């Protein structure tokens, strides 16, 4: 109790202190002259000031890029770096304009709210409104000017990028079409240069090896160990996932087409990637641990590249041609043809690899250009001769299909193509266009191998995704054992696996082909960035990355909604013993709300402006007014049913001709299951506008009746007592309200009663009534109470024969007497016939 006065006094003292400081500050401010408005600069730059600074900075960067392009007009690598910087500058300039757009829209909306200035003859407006309009108009003009500068700068940067692209294209063409005179003196100079280069490289390599062994021994071993570990991890993981596709089963006599394709593709791809990881990580770690000298590093990189190239072509030859295993071969070649073609391809790959390696050594040692020209000449000549030699072979499979039999000649068109290409390479190299010949020879081997491998991968994906084909694979067997999938699910998984193989083949093969044809890694990065962030279709800009992000966010929110539905239903509402209908309504409402939120988040993340749907919404409103009114009516009716809940899932309802149990309520229709297990889909608007009977609206209590008829000789009170006694023995019958028996009527042949009782659950009525009828029948038989059958009284009247019209005839003849005799016998008292017939449809 003592804390309250102390606290109040503390607050009062603090208030007085703050007030005193305020008055002192106000007095001091009144005594000191105010600073001019120009001196009161804001502490934080406005968006306009920031944009101005960024534009000035971008102009300086553009000038530097233009100077760099002029200075490095003959250096393709430098131009690649400048193109990357120019692309980044272009995106930065566009970002400046985008950042100014919100402020420009605010100014535009505010000016629209203020309106135009008053015209002549109209009442003047307030001075503050005029000042605000003028200030906003001036700021809008500044933003327009700055946006114009940004657009002009963006156009200039785009022109610079196009200029760099054109310069690189011209450099590439000049390099390929550069002509060198081939003569004996050139070959002599090349020989002398080769001897000198070999001596220098031997000395450099020896000195580097001595240095590494003395001072960098442990870093070298560490780098090799780390690279080997990386490659082994990749290879072991690949064997675990694709082990059956990396090696051929010797026990299989006739492998399937899918098996041959899959093993050819995955064995080539996975093992080449494993070796590539080993080589790349080895170079990275060796360079990172300072094991490589600047003059040795490019040579080691070229050596690793040559090893990777030869290994890839070797794996390709083994996968496609299978020289030693004809049953796994993908092309119709004889054994001799497969071996000869495979060796020729491998020889051409080795020639290209050695040419590339020696060229890199020459650049590192500073060798003259003539040596590079002669090396490329020799490589082009060897490859041309190999192609011509291959064209005269007989590699095709014999007509009898025996791979060991002598083969047949190439198809005529293929042999001519090989000879023309080989002769063209030789002629191009001898006429001095060595660069072009070397480029074509390289692309024949490497690009051809990559394209064929991609094609095999696409064929493998197509074969696996074919209907009912994936189930025979090892991976399908694994999925069946692991996840207990059925045939339909396995077939769908085969489609997904086929699409994944398509993606792997394209994503690995296309970048490799682009790199082989002169593209740089930076070019691929820029291309990928533009592809995923901005694809322009006319005036529309589409971001694939944004669309993928939107789809992932939609899927994530949708899955979160489903989880929330299950959690609320299984934990919160189930533990609270909430009614089943309430649980269904809550689950349905949360589901539709979650889908709506997921759609909004996904569309926004995809970069689609929701305001652009205004036109679509206006068009839809017209359609809703005409063709979609029934759908909208059902939709609104479904929402009313979910909120108002005149009936719920599990209720026994009667609507028109439909009667049954409500199984599902959606926003369009309600599913009612009849007692014959027929599902009836009723539009929600009919349930809202029509009459609906609900037997279990507020509770499941209901009355059940059993009609009973007894003979007239039975004691009514005894019958009523027996019925009540039997009803009292049924546990499911409610005691309040109390069961009772109504004496309904005196029937035509029976006394009619009706046993009425209440049940806590109408669903138990059928079983209770059946059991009661059985007990009533047994008890009536024991007590001698008869349940009468329906009776009908039938009376037949037969009239006498009329008197003879002829009165003059006194005595009838003998024939007449004989004819009248039977009639006289029938003229007796009326006979009454009573028949009893069983009534199969009798109640009770």
Q: What attributes does this structure have?
A:
disordered C terminus, elongated, transmembrane helix, alpha+beta, MS_channel_C, MscS-like_channel, 3-stranded antiparallel beta sheet, 844 residues, 8% strand, disordered N terminus, MscS_channel_TM-2, 23 helices, Small-conductance mechanosensitive channel, 5-stranded antiparallel beta sheet
What features would you describe in this structure?
The protein has 844 residues and is of the alpha+beta class. Among the domains are: 48-118 and 127-177; 184-432, no CATH class; 542-608; 702-783, 2-Layer Sandwich (Alpha-Beta Plaits). It has helices at 3-31, 47-71, 76-114, 127-176, 184-215, 217-242, 257-288, 297-320, 335-365, 369-391, 412-430, 434-465, 474-483, 487-516, 521-533, 544-575, 580-605, 614-626, 629-644, 684-689, 716-728, 765-783, 814-826, and strands at 535-537, 540-542, 652-655, 658-665, 669-673, 679-683, 693-694, 702-710, 740-746, 751-759, 791-795, 832-836. It has a 5-stranded antiparallel beta sheet. Strands 8-10-9 form a 3-stranded antiparallel beta sheet, covered by helices on one side. The chain has a two-stranded antiparallel sheet with strand order 1-2. It is elongated, with a radius of gyration of 49 Å.
Number of strands: 12
Helix content: 55-70%
Number of helices: 23
Computed Rg: 49 Å
First and last CA, distance: 83 Å
**Which word captures the global form?**
elongated
Signal peptide: 1-30
Organism: Rhizobium esperanzae
Protein name: Small-conductance mechanosensitive channel
Domain Mechanosensitive ion channel MscS: 630-697
């Amino acid at each position: 109790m003592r804390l309250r006065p102390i606290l109040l006094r503390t607050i009062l003292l603090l208030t007085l202190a703050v007030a005193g400081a305020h008055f002192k500050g106000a007095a001091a401010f009144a005594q000191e002259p105010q600073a001019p408005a120009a001196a009161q600069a804001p502490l934080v730059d406005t968006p306009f000031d920031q944009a101005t600074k960024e534009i000035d900075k971008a102009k300086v960067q553009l000038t530097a890029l233009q100077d760099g392009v002029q200075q490095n007009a003959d250096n393709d690598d430098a131009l690649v770096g400048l193109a990357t910087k120019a692309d980044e500058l272009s995106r930065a300039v566009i970002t400046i304009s985008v950042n100014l757009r919100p402020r420009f829209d605010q100014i535009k909306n505010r000016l629209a709210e203020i309106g135009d200035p008053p015209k002549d003859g109209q009442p003047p407006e307030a001075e503050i409104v005029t000042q605000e309009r003028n200030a906003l108009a001036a700021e809008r003009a500044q933003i327009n000017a700055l946006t114009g500068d940004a657009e002009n700068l963006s156009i200039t940067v785009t022109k610079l990028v196009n200029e760099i692209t054109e310069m690189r294209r011209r450099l590439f063409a000049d390099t390929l079409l550069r002509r060198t005179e081939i003569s004996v003196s050139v070959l002599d100079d090349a020989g002398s240069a080769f001897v000198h280069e070999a001596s220098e490289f031997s000395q450099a390599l020896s000195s580097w090896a001595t240095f590494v062994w003395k001072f960098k021994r442990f870093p070298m071993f560490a780098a090799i160990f780390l690279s080997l570990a990386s490659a082994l991890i990749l290879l072991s993981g690949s064997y675990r996932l694709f082990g059956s596709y990396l090696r051929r089963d010797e026990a299989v006599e006739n492998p399937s087409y899918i098996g041959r394709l899959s093993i050819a593709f995955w064995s080539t791809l996975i093992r080449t990637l494993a070796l590539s990881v080993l080589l790349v990580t080895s170079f990275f770690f060796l360079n990172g641990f300072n094991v490589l000298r600047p003059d040795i590093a490019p040579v080691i990189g070229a050596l690793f590249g040559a090893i990777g190239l030869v290994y890839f072509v070797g794996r390709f030859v083994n996968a496609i041609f299978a020289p030693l295993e004809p049953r796994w071969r993908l092309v119709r070649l004889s054994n001799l043809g497969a071996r000869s073609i495979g060796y020729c391809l491998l020889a051409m790959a080795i020639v290209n690899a050695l040419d590339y390696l020696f060229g890199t050594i020459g650049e590192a040692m500073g060798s003259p250009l003539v040596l590079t020209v002669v090396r490329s000449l020799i490589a082009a000549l060897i490859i041309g001769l190999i192609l011509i030699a291959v064209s005269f072979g007989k590699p095709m499979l014999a007509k009898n299909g025996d791979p060991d039999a002598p083969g047949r000649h190439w198809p005529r068109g293929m042999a001519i193509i090989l000879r023309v290409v080989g002769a063209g390479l030789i002629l191009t190299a001898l006429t001095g266009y060595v660069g072009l010949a070397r480029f074509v020879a390289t692309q024949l081997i490497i690009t051809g191998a990559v394209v064929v491998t991609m094609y095999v991968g696409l064929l493998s994906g197509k074969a696996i995704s074919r209907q009912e084909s994936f189930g025979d694979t090892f991976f399908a067997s694994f999925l069946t054992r692991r996840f207990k999938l059925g045939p339909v699910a396995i077939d769908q998984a085969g489609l997904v696996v086929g699409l994944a193989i398509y993606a792997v083949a394209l994503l690995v093969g296309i970048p490799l082909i682009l790199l082989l044809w002169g593209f740089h890694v930076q070019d691929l990065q820029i291309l990928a960035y533009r592809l995923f962030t901005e694809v322009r279709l006319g005036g529309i800009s589409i971001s694939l990355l944004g669309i993928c992000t939107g789809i992932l966010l939609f899927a994530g929110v949708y899955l979160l909604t489903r989880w929330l539905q299950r959690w609320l239903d299984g934990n919160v509402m189930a533990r609270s013993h909430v009614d089943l209908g309430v649980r269904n309504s809550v689950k349905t409402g949360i589901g539709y709300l979650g889908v709506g939120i997921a759609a909004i988040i996904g569309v926004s993340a995809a970069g689609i402006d929701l305001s652009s749907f205004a036109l679509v919404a206006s068009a839809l409103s017209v359609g809703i007014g005409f063709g979609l009114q029934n759908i909208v009516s059902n939709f609104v009716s479904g929402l009313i049913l979910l909120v108002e809940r005149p009936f719920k899932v599990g209720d026994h309802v009667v609507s028109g001709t439909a009667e049954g149990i409500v199984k599902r309520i959606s926003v369009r229709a309600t599913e009612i299951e009849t007692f014959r297990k027929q599902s009836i889909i009723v539009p929600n608007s009919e349930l809202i506008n029509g009459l609906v009977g609900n037997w279990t609206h507020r509770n499941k209590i209901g009355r059940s009746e059993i009609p009973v008829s007894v003979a007239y000789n039975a004691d009514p009170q005894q019958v009523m007592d027996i019925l009540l006694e039997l009803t009292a023995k049924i546990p499911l019958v409610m005691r309040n309200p109390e069961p009772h028996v109504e004496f309904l009527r005196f029937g035509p042949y029976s006394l009619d009663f009706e046993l009425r009782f209440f049940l806590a659950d109408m669903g138990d009525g059928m079983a209770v009534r059946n059991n009661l009828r059985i007990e009533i029948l047994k008890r009536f038989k024991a007590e001698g109470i008869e349940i009468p059958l329906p009776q009908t009284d039938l009376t037949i009247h037969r009239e006498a024969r009329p008197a003879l019209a002829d009165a003059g005839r006194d005595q009838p003849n003998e024939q007449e007497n004989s004819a009248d005799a039977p009639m006289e016998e029938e003229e007796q008292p009326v006979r009454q016939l009573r028949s009893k017939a069983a009534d199969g449809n009798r109640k009770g």
